[in-house]
Design brief:
alpha+beta, Alpha-Beta Plaits, six-stranded mixed sheet, 6 strands, elongated
């Protein structure tokens, strides 16, 4: 592992209701717009992809990446999604996202004697995502065994 690695899992809130209320064409356009918003938010070297349905992943890796910077990027992405002019697609349409993230710092891992696997980073972000959805806190950061809520603006 080179540098700090972070994984953001982004899940759109209530997209089934969008499909049921406004139709699948509108739901598909929501997914396309969110994909463009995520693409616009990443840097060269980051990786963004749609996992399926209304869930996306963003993988960040950088020698200078801090947990605070990852949280800041997650807040900015969540805000960009909420602030998109969704009413252009349908009156009263609003889209929000829940984000779970996991940060793996290699210096801390070396100090503890154990480097995290890709699977453990994914599992931690996935657990944080479901905690965010359950608590309705918007963003949750997984720090090892704990999932700590982070209040997001927007």
């Amino acid at each position: 592992m080179r540098g700090t690695t972070a994984l953001l899992l982004v899940d759109l809130d209530g997209v089934k209701a969008v499909n049921d209320t406004y139709g699948h064409g509108c739901g598909d356009e929501v997914l396309r717009r969110v994909g463009r918003l995520i693409s616009a938010s990443i840097r060269a070297g980051d990786l963004a992809l749609r996992l399926g349905g209304d869930e996306f992943a963003v993988l960040l890796q950088d020698d200078m990446l801090s947990e605070a910077a990852v949280v800041e990027r997650a807040v900015a992405l969540r805000t960009a999604i909420a602030d998109e002019p969704w009413s252009e697609l349908a009156d009263d349409l609003a889209i929000t996202a829940s984000i779970g993230l996991s940060v793996a710092d290699p210096a801390a891992a070396v100090a503890s004697g154990s480097l995290p696997s890709a699977e453990s980073i994914y599992r931690a972000a996935d657990t944080a995502l479901y905690t965010a959805k359950r608590r309705r806190t918007g963003i949750v950061v997984s720090t090892g065994a704990q999932a700590d809520p982070v209040r997001a603006t927007g």
